[in-house]
Amino acid sequence: MRILVTGMSGLIGSALQSRLQQDHNLTAFNRSDVAGTPTVRADLSDYDSLRDAVTGQDVVIHLAAKAGEDFTWAELRDTNVEGTRNVFAAAVDAGVGRVVFASSGATVAGWESREPYKALVEGRYDDVTDWPLITVDMPPRPRGIYGSTKSLGRGAGQPLC
């Protein structure tokens, strides 16, 4: 398969590269060169470069993000929300059949402040006999601005109707 990976220079992208590069044709969409992989050097805000990069790909794996709380709202919004929206839009425009979006545990970390999960996190196991597993059907409970932007990014790939 032909696979475009955004953010391949990151921790998860590097692991993915080593796992997939022998069986698939990888291309990185990254702000810096990625050793051993053809790289389109651009930012997620550059829709035209992104659209060109996804053309002809079978799959797009979107890993690029500004992670953590050390960024301004504008930086997080521009990359994690608007950049993600650009990835999905470019993939749709180019006819790419599948986009894999990497979310974050920060989108559900807020569940830790509610019982029974709070008791589990605090090690009060005797206070809990049963609890529902957190699933994709449950509402996100993001922690912080970063978690919120990743939750918003997740919505960028939802069908419009």
State the main characteristics.
161 residues, alpha/beta, 5 helices, 5 strands
What's the short story on this structure?
The protein has five helices and five strands. It has 161 residues and is α/β, with parallel strands linked by helices.
Detailed description of the structure:
This protein has five helices and five strands, in the order βαββαβαβαα. With 161 residues, the protein is of the alpha/beta class. It has a single domain (2-110, 144-156), classed as 3-Layer(aba) Sandwich (Rossmann fold), CATH 3.40.50.720. The longest helix is centred in the middle third of the chain and has 22 residues, at 73-94. The radius of gyration is 18 Å and the shape is elongated.
List the topology elements.
Layout: E1 2-6, H1 11-20, E2 25-30, E3 39-41, H2 47-54, E4 59-62, H3 73-94, E5 98-101, H4 117-121, H5 144-156
Parallel strand pairs: 1-2, 1-4, 2-3, 4-5
Helix pairs in contact: 2-3, 3-5
CATH architecture: 3-Layer(aba) Sandwich
CATH-defined fold name: Rossmann fold
End-to-end Cα distance, whole Å, is 30 Å
Number of strands: 5
Q: Into which percentage range does the β-strand content fall?
A: 5-15%
Rg, nearest Å: 18 Å
Strand order of the largest sheet: 3-2-1-4-5
Mean pLDDT: 88
* Low-confidence spans: none
Order of helices and strands: EHEEHEHEHH
Number of domains: 1
CATH class: Alpha Beta
Q: Describe the largest sheet.
A: 5 strands, parallel
**Outline:** elongated
CATH homologous group name: NAD(P)-binding Rossmann-like Domain
